[in-house]
Every structure is written in C-alpha cells, then in structure tokens.
C-alpha cells in the first residue's frame, strides 16, 4: 500500500522534470522529420495515385464508364486475367517445390540455386521479353520449327504468358524459402514417424504452417503479373483486342491522345494496386498475430 | 553429421522437388537468358563494339547511369527519414502511410508513367506552376529522374525498417550515459549500424532504376541523344529488326545488373560479419 502511495505521489513530479530519454528526439526534430517524410511521400506517392483517378474522371462518370466498357478495353482485361491465371499458379507450384527442397534438405550448390532463383529480379523487363524473342521469334532458335508447325508464341498469347511468368518467377519462392527454413522440419518428421506419407505430411502439416507466407507471395506475384509492361510489350505485337494486356492498352490509348480512356483503364490497375496493398497489410497483420499467439 | 543426413532422408520428395525446381528454372530462366549471350557470342568484336558504343548508345548509358544515381541518392536520403519516422515516431494515419510506401511495387509502371506525365507536363497539375518559372520536368532528364525516384522509393525504406526495429535502445542509452549528445549518438552510433542496410537499399534502388522502362518512356519524351534510356534503345532496335544490336546492348546491361547483384550480395555478407563481431 505504501508503495502505491509513494509512487502516485512521486510519479507526476518525475514526469514533469524528466529530461528526454536517451532514445528520444526533441519535439521540433520529430515534427521536422515527420513533416519532411510526409511531404516527400505526398508528392511522390499520393499525388500520382490521385492524378490517375482525377484524370480518369475529368470528363465525368459517363465518359469514364464508356471507356471502361469499351470492347477493346474488356478484351485487354480478359487477356490480363488469362496471363495471371496461368503464370501465378505455375510460379506457386515452382515456389513450393523450390522452398521444399531448399529448406528440408542439405545439398551442394544450394546458395547458388537461391541466387539463380532471384535472377529475374535483376533483369530489365525489356530484356525479359527480348530473350523469349531470341528463343521463339521468327529469327530465333525455335522460330523455323514453330513456323513449320504453325505454332505462334511471339506476338501471341503464349509469349505474353511466358514473359509474365519470367518477371514474376521469384515472388513465391523468395517468400517461402526463408519461412520454411526458419520453421525447420521437426513437425514433418513427427508426421512421418506417426505413419503419414510425404503428401499427407505436406498437405496437413507444411501447408497450414506456410499459408500466410504463401498467400503473401501470391498477392505480390499477382500484382506484378497483371501490371507488367516492359516484358509483355516486347513479345505482344500490340494487336488491339487480341494481344493487348491492360497496361499495353493504356499505352495505346495514351499515344492516341485518348487520355480519358487511358486513365480509365489505368484507374482499374490503380484499384488493383490499392486492393493489393490492403490485402498485403491484412496478411502481414494476421501473420504477426499468428506469430504472437 | 551422419545422424543429420539420416534424418534428412526420412522426408520424401527430395528428387521430385529438386528435379522440378531445376527443370523449371532451366526452361523459364537459364535457357532464354543464355540465348542473349550466345547470340552476342556469334558477333564479331568490331560489330559488337559498333553496336554497344555508338554515340547514341553512349548518351543513353550516361543518362541511365546518372539519372539512376541521382534517384537512388534522393531515395537513400528521404528513405532514411521515412524509415526513421515510421519506426520511431507515432502519428495519426501511420499504418496507412506505411502501407502506401509499397505503392511503387504494386502500381503498374505504365500507370505510374502516365500519372507522372499528367502531373509534370507543362499544363499538368504541378507543371503549370513550374512552367512560368522556366522549370521543365516532363520530357527532360529531370522527368527521367522523377520517374526513377518513384519506382525506387520502397527499396531503401523496406531494407532499413527491419534493421531500425532491431536496434537495441541500450546502445543509444549507453552512448548518452557516456556523455554523447543526441547528434553524436546518431552520427557515431546509429548511422554506422544502419550503413550496410542503407547501402543495400541504395544499390537495390539503383539496380532497379537502371532497368526500368514503363514509368520512364511516357515522361522522358524519348529524344535521341538527350532523353533516351538504355532499355528504350533495345526496344527501338527491335522495332527496326536489328536483333543483334538489341541483344548486344542487352548483354552489356545484363553484365552490369549481375555485377550489381554480386555487389549487393557482398555488402550483405559484409554487414552480417560486421554484426557478428
């Protein structure tokens, strides 16, 4: 009781006289730095985002919905969805397989393998498209054979899917590898010892453990897959209504001075970016909660 | 050791998962990338030099290099402030600001490109106020710099944040109790601790800027010798069916990017050793 009395008695005096703690900055420094950071972010991040919606709605809602509902715009939405629906699952399967062999076993050349998986991030998007032209293009390695068998890859949908897969290649793997390495293999050993086979151990033990990391990788992978511009631009051939993804359609409309149309399609991609950021924050939050529990 | 190896072999799926990983990596990444190097290997040295060192290409290297350097430097400076503010201070809306930092990762580059052009063109949101003072941003080198700053922004913040969060308050308290003032604590104790992460973020931002295409092409105006970046030259050559020329420039860029990747790995290795000591 006495302790409580002294502490309530002493505390206010201490607080009033206490100098700044060693890890605290004076108030004016806090204000200055926070202000600088917010002004910088407002100019470089918020303003472009607001500009997309502002320009899209410049001629009113009618013009906006007419631009979004245009047949070529809808075709570009469809192609973007197709490219993402193929490349994202492919990279999920790869990411899980790569993380499984890297996290669960020890073998030589592992760090080289991890570096090679990250390689596509170091390649300029334009070059990511170019290398597929060199393999599948009319002048490329397989070009003559493909022409003979009437298979179109470059300037067609398969090329777009391949280029998208390349630029989004590391996303899932690089999320899962450190996560599964940190989790170790004890739980899987226990499952195997109790009579589970490998697939059962994976589906019932590993997958529930990595689900948030996996979802996080999928969200990032999908955002890049739907938004990729440079790589897809090289392999697409820009045929309206056929090989234009949404970012390419934005470019075509913009270059035709159809600014409302360009910004209307761009606003859909900006909405996708916002949804991505929200989902990402939710997953980070859930993951932190799961860790704390 | 032998126990460890035995334990490892208990878990099935090694051959399947490694086999699939290597096959997929080879088909999607390694074989197509090697096509660029093999195509260039078929060129004579004189042709190669003519393709990668013509005045127009040299001007593009210069622009890409210096604009990326300027953008990465600005990002290092402001990224440090943003990361510091997000980790150390409390203010309303902090979680939203924190999430928004990733916008350049999530927003398609083409969208960023046309948005920045709409802002900085001479009749644009900001451009109309600068134009009367003779400041032009869109369709100049400054426009390239602005776009590269936008796309490189998250790298520095996101590499610094975890390091800042893990810094023990004890080292600052120790410095203060030994008589250091706040500025001495920051410049002599905190900044050296943060330096490897800051350098990594700078290098990542710089590497990303070198290869960037989508956000730059709209705002740069693409004038030969003045505002053409290297990736645009590759596209231009491809459109002229000059596949060899395009590939030769691509090989120069790939070599630079892989060198940077190696450098970033070395910095991280060095910083890990630095931390262990």
The rough form of chain B would be described as: globular
The percent range for helix content of chain B is over 70%
Return residue spans of chain A where pLDDT drops below 50 for at least 5 consecutive residues: 1-17
Helix/strand-derived class of chain A?
A: mainly alpha
Instruction: Tell the overall outline of chain A.
Output: globular
Instruction: Return Rg of chain A in Å.
Output: 26 Å
Number of helices of chain B: 14
Give the helix level of chain A as a range of percent: over 70%
Q: What is the helix tally of chain A?
A: 14
Strands of chain A, count: 0
- Could you tell me the strand content of chain A as a percent range? under 5%
Provide mean pLDDT of chain A, rounded.
Answer: 89
Q: Give the largest chain-chain interface (CB within 8 Å).
A: A-B, 99 and 93 residues
Structural class of chain B: mainly alpha
Task: Give a short account of the largest sheet of chain B.
Answer: none
Low-confidence segments of chain B, ≥5 residues, pLDDT <50? 1-7
Main pleated-sheet profile of chain A: none
Cα(first) to Cα(last) distance of chain B is 27 Å
Strand content of chain B: under 5%
Word description of this protein:
- The complex is a heterodimer of chains A (293) and B (277).
- Chain A has 293 residues and is mainly alpha-helical.
- In chain A, 80% of the residues lie in helices and 0% in strands.
- In chain A, helix 6 (125-136) packs across helix 8 and helix 6 (125-136) packs parallel to helix 12 (230-236).
- The radius of gyration of chain B is 23 Å and the shape is globular.
């Amino acid at each position: 009781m006495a302790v409580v009395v002294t502490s309530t008695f002493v505390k206010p005096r201490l607080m009033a006289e206490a100098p700044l703690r060693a890890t605290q900055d004076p108030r004016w420094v806090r204000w200055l730095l926070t202000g600088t950071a917010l002004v910088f972010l407002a100019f470089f991040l918020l303003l472009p985002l607001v500009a997309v919606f502002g320009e899209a709605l410049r001629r009113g809602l009618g013009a906006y919905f007419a631009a979004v509902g245009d047949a070529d715009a809808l075709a570009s939405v469809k192609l973007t969805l197709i490219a993402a629906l193929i490349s994202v699952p492919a990279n999920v399967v790869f990411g899980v397989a790569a993380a499984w062999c890297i996290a669960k076993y020890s073998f030589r050349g592992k760090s080289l393998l991890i570096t090679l998986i990250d390689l596509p991030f170091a390649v300029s998007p334009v070059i990511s498209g170019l290398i597929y032209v060199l393999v599948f293009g009319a002048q490329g390695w397989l070009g003559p054979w493909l022409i003979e068998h009437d298979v179109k890859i470059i300037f067609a949908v398969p090329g777009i899917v391949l280029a998208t897969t390349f630029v989004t290649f590391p996303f899932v793997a690089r999320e899962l590898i450190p996560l599964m390495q940190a989790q170790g293999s004890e739980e899987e050993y226990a499952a195997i010892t109790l009579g589970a086979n490998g697939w059962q151990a994976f589906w019932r033990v590993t997958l529930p453990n990595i689900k948030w990391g996996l979802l996080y990788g999928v969200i990032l992978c999908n955002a890049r897959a739907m938004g990729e511009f440079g790589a897809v631009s090289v392999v697409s051939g820009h045929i309206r209504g056929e090989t234009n993804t949404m970012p390419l359609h934005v470019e075509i409309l913009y270059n035709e001075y159809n600014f409302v149309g360009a910004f209307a399609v761009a606003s859909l991609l900006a909405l996708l970016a916002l949804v991505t950021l929200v989902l990402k924050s939710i997953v980070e939050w859930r993951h932190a909660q799961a860790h704390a529990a | 050791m032998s126990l460890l190896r035995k334990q490892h072999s208990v878990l099935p799926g090694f051959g399947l998962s490694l086999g699939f990983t290597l096959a997929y990596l080879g088909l999607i990444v390694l074989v197509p990338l090697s096509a660029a190097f093999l195509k260039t290997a078929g060129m004579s040295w004189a042709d190669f030099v003519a393709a990668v060192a013509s005045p127009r290409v040299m001007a593009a290297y210069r622009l890409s290099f210096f604009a990326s350097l300027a953008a990465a430097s600005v990002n290092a400076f402001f990224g440090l402030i943003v990361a510091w503010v997000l980790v150390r201070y409390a203010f309303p809306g902090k979680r939203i600001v924190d999430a928004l930092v990733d916008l350049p990762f999530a927003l398609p580059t083409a969208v960023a490109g046309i948005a920045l052009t709409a802002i900085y063109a001479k009749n644009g949101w900001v451009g109309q106020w600068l134009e009367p003072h003779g400041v032009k941003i869109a369709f100049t080198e400054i426009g390239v710099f602005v776009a590269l700053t936008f796309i490189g922004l998250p790298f520095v913040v996101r590499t610094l944040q975890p390091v800042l969060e893990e810094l023990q308050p004890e080292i600052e308290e120790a410095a203060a109790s030994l008589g250091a003032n706040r500025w001495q604590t920051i410049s002599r104790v905190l900044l050296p601790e943060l330096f490897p992460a800051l350098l990594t973020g700078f290098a990542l931002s710089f590497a990303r800027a070198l290869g960037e295409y989508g956000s730059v092409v709209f705002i740069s105006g693409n004038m030969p010798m003045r505002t053409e970046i290297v990736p645009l030259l590759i596209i231009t050559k491809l459109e002229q069916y000059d596949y060899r020329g395009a590939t030769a420039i691509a090989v120069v860029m790939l070599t630079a990017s892989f060198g940077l990747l190696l450098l970033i790995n070395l910095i991280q290795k060095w910083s890990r050793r630095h931390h262990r000591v």
